[in-house]
Structure formats: structure tokens, C-alpha cells
Amino acid sequence: MKLCVLVPGLVPGLVLVLALVLTVCVARSPYQAVLQHSRIRGRQQGPNVCAMQQIKGTDKKYFTNCKQWYHRKVCGKPTVITYECCPGYEKIPGEKGCPAALPLVNIYNTLGVVGASTTQMYSERAKLREEVEGPGSFTFFAPSNEAWAALPMEILDALVSNVNIELLNALHYHMVNRRLTSEELRHGSSFASMYQDLHVHIHHYSNGVVTVNCARLIKPDQHATNGIVHVVDRVITAISNDVNTLIDVDDDLETLRTAIAAAGLTPMLESEGQYTIFAPTNEAFEKIPQETLNRILGDPVALRDLLNYHILKQMQCAESVVSGTPMETLQGSVLEVGCDGDQMTLNGKAIITKKDQLGTNGVIHYINELLIPDSAKTLLELAEGSPVTTATKLFVEAGLSPHLMGSEALTMLAPQNDAFKGSLTMSPDMRRLMTNHMLKETLSSKSLYHGQELETLGGLKLRVFVYRNVRSLICSFICRLIKREGGCSVHDGRSCSCVPVLVDELSVVYPVDSPRYCDHMW
Question: Which spans of this chain does the record mark as coiled coil (predicted)?
């Protein structure tokens, strides 16, 4: 734990700033950090008062952190600041704040005072009361009253029928036979529940959100004489299947299932891990042109890249997302996982149709749109919708389509659209020019070095020059690479404005500031 010293005699205006800094120094977990921040923001209302951010028009509340406090937004929606007693405290009539600690009573009685009276009622109906009133040390992840109210009636009816055995089993799955504070609920941990030792899965995110089986802890650390209660925002269900099995048994994921098997990813999705899978439905695959889909399915490298682009390296429950955050996929590229109100988003688009389908080794979110990474696209597909469509049209007219749609390793030097003035007519010279805008190898900006010699499809030899104080290395490469014999204009690398915009693992597309009518290098 870090130690921080508050020096006496400091300017009073600095006290709040120092208090906020101290939350980082003394907080033992992300949740504790946001709790301390909420206490500091609420202290003007009295002792043990926490500032909460409530999304307007909803009942959803969050302990606040610095970013949310100043932005006044959660999931893109405006929030209002409310104040309530911090966990473990209560009000006294006529006194400011929450000066009194909650009475320390058994778990059954604690349920009645922390917003889980429905769980208390069902505990008595399931004949669990004696157990949670008696000796022992338990952790109870207790669904809030609102969580029970949100449960579909047919599921609730099934739980309370069958002589309450199903209800007892369900409640036992919410319990662990030991006391676990939020401090001990570490990210990626799991604990055997009191129902057939099936595990509950914990995730403790850096933004302070803590989940159990993707249900958010909304009132953690409610202590009792015989354990501890964490109030959660939904009723959780037992999980026993891995994510691959979940995909196998869902007819809506039949195409995905076939693709996973063809790519050889089945063993990975059956193994231990913490995966997040954005699972394209059959409908999502059907939206892709059949020719494109057949090409990807027939290319083992492109297919694996496509599928890995839908898998995150960590488990991300929907309730853990409170703002847009870039997250790395197994393919290596980044997706922005965000939210818009209650909707989870990908790259700013609300394409997630079903959330938090939980497996023993990860979580699945269904999407209705296929995500195709650049590495699974042809050069032609990469260029579509980019700032180089005019050059792409000329490449096609020059008869270079087989190169644009093939799998060979190439680099395209593509002038941006605004580099072309007026209309251009295809001629032998133009065809040769376009051929010399394609290199015979894949080159990213990181692989270039001063003096490097390159060859175009037309057989032209080019050389790389690297200069200081340029926008990017590839920029100086493009702008100073070629000079026409007899006085072709050379752009100064220091003022060059071109930057790479499209990069493909097999092929690279770079926009340049103008077409190069040059036959020889310097």
C-alpha cells in the first residue's frame, strides 16, 4: 500500500485536491477508490454521505469518479448528483448526514434494511431463513427488489414452484460459504457457491465496477454478524458450459459455429480463459456479399483474422462499460467498446442484440453486423470508402484488378482524391504510371529505413529517404521518393502533409499528396 503525508499549514483551497489525490494513495481496490471519491464529494452534506451519479430518467446509480464527476455523464447520458448514506451507515432524524452505523445483525435481518427485502421474503419461503440467521460465515449476493421485479414471470413461477426446491437452489447459488469483502473480490476470481459447488465468477474492473456473473454490485459490503451482503442488480443463474458449448447449441449462431470449426478455434474456446466474444448471428453473415464471404471462408488466414477480430483478450460484462474504451482483440486490432444509455455499442454503433450470455470461460454478446478487419480485406475492399477512391478507379481501369483482389503481398501508393485535378483518361502512359504506384512487397511505416531499395510492379526501382522533423516516416518516403528525370518537382519532407490511412497485414494502402509522373529515381 502507498503511504501519503498531508503536510500541515497548506493553503485551504488545496485540501480538496489533496484529499482526492489521497484516494489513490490509500485505496486498496478500484471500488474502494471510487467509494472514497464519492465520500469526499459528499462530505459537505454531513458525515458518511456519498455522492452518487444517477442517470436521468432511470434508477441506475453509480459511485462517482473524477472523470464522471466533471463530465456529468454515464454511457453518454446526463446524470444528476444525489446523496445517500455510504455503505454501513444510516440517518438519524434531526441530525446532518449519516452519523449512525447500521446495527450489526444477522444476514436475514440485514437483507431487510439494504433494499433486498424481496430476497428476504424468498429466503423465508425457501426455508433458508434459519440458515442465514444461524451460526456461520456467508457471503450473500442478494438481488435487489428491482432485480426480482425485472425477472420474467415464467422464470419466477418456475423458481417458486416445485415445493420451493428450485428457489432454494437459486438462492444457494447466490451464496458462498465464507465472508468475502469487496477487497477480496479480485478481478478474474471465482468461488464455489453453496449450490453443488458451481462457481460464481467475479470481475473487478479498473473503473470501480464489480460484477458477479455480470451482475453489478450496487450496494457492496453490507456487514452482518454471520457474514456479508452484496446487493446486486439482477438475479444470477448457474453456469456450467464453456462459451464454445453455448455457441454449439444456439441455432442463431450456426454460421459462426461452422466458421470457428473451419478456423481451428474450437480448442481455444473450450479451454480455460477470460474471453469476450462478439458473436455475429446468421443474419449478420447474410448481410455480407456472398462473393466476399466465400473468399474469406476459403482463406484460412483471413478467416482466423476475421474471427479473432470478434474476440477480446479480457472478459467484458455489459455493466462494466460506462464510456467508450478501446480494447485489443485477439487479432491485434482495437475495437471501441462503449455504451449509449442501456445499449452496449461497438465502434459507436448499437449492433449488440443480446448481452451477457455467460460461460465458464467468458461471455458472449450477440451482434447483427459482421466486423471485417483490414487484414481480412482485399486491397480493393480496403480502398472502398477511403480518401483514395479516384486512384482506385484508375488502378481498375489500368487492368490491375487481379492484384487488387488477390492475396499477393503488395503496397499501394494511392494518391488522395483531392490530388487529382480534372478528368483523367486511361492511356499506355497512365497504365504504366499506375503500375509504378504498386510495390512488390508489403511495407508498413515501421519497416522502412534510409537507403532502402524497392521495386514496383512495373519494374521501377525506388529508394527510401528518411528525414528529421517530418510528420511520419512514410510521409517523407512518399514525398521524396521519386523524381522525374529532367526536373520533376520534389516536395520538402518537412512540410509534407500525407499520412498512411489504411494498413493491411498482407497489403498496405498509403495516400500521397499527388500522383507521381516519374520514370526514374534520383
Answer: none
